[in-house]
Amino acid sequence: MNRLLNNLIQVFDKYFQTQGANEIVILKEKELFLCVNGKWNEFKDEQLKKEILNDFLIFLANDREQQFNKKNRSLSTSIPGTNYRVQALHKTALNDQEFSINIRIPPKEIFPIESFKLAANLPYSYDDILNFISDRKNILISGGTGSGKTSLLNTLMKKIDIEERLVIIQDSPELRSKNKNQTSILVDKKDTGTFTYQDAIDAATRLFPERLILGELDTRNTLMSLRLNNTGHAGTISTVHANSAEDALYAMNLNIRFERDISDKTITEYISRAIDYIIQIERNKKTNEREIVEILDLKQYIKDL
């Protein structure tokens, strides 16, 4: 590993290892904010000098063959050899501050399904949710930022038969599986990159997947992903940013409209054939618990419209 990178990781290590920590924010040199169990804590750190932080960002950009400068002012990447996601903005994109660096600290373990609280009125049990996976239902996990979407996805992936052949597509290395027979594809965060979601999905269909896992649906991949689901690829699991299950349906509709001019009715019917259940997850800001608050049987929902 590059010496600079190794030295900086050692500087961050005490924060990475803090129990309950999930996000680092750096806004100026020699200090950072650490989110622990949903609360922000401020730390002074003389090791986080301006020169080191700038070199760190340039190294990360170069490692993924990205540019980070006045013309390319957003950097979305990860620390090589880890699953720590990094989002940074160039100082020319900021108002009167030197840095905007976020480092997502993933959970150190894959949680049991019981660690996600079930809403009192939810007509589904933990066994029902796990059976969605063994029954090869197509699942979409919906939630806001920091709600636990990726954590829940990793938990559900544990239910996949260890003998199954997986192909995982993501733009940050956050998904983990113990299946030995897997190909994990890492795409560029921006479509201006050299390897896009289109490239990855085209390749994935030729990699003989028994199950496809797509990290997050957005404007670049929603239509392609749904097309795969509608052509015999069962048992997929994906995530989407939305505040409710109905909002997730609307978000997918909007994502598709960025690519094609299709009527709402046609899109909705297409989505309902591609996805079986939408699982809505939230983080309780008071208790910091992750809670499954809604499970939408999408096919039944569309029938009832």
TrEMBL record:
Domain Bacterial type II secretion system protein E per the UniProt entry, residue ranges: 100-253
SUPFAM superfamilies, from UniProt? P-loop containing nucleoside triphosphate hydrolases
For this chain, the family text in UniProt reads: Belongs to the GSP E family.
Q: Name one GO molecular function term.
A: ATP hydrolysis activity
What name goes with this protein?
P-type type IV conjugative transfer system ATPase TrbB/VirB11
Q: Which domain of life is it from?
A: Bacteria
**CDD domains linked:** VirB11-like_ATPase
InterPro entries the UniProt entry points to:
P-loop_NTPase, T2SS/T4SS_dom, T4SS_GSP_E_ATPase
Q: Which Pfam families match?
A: T2SSE
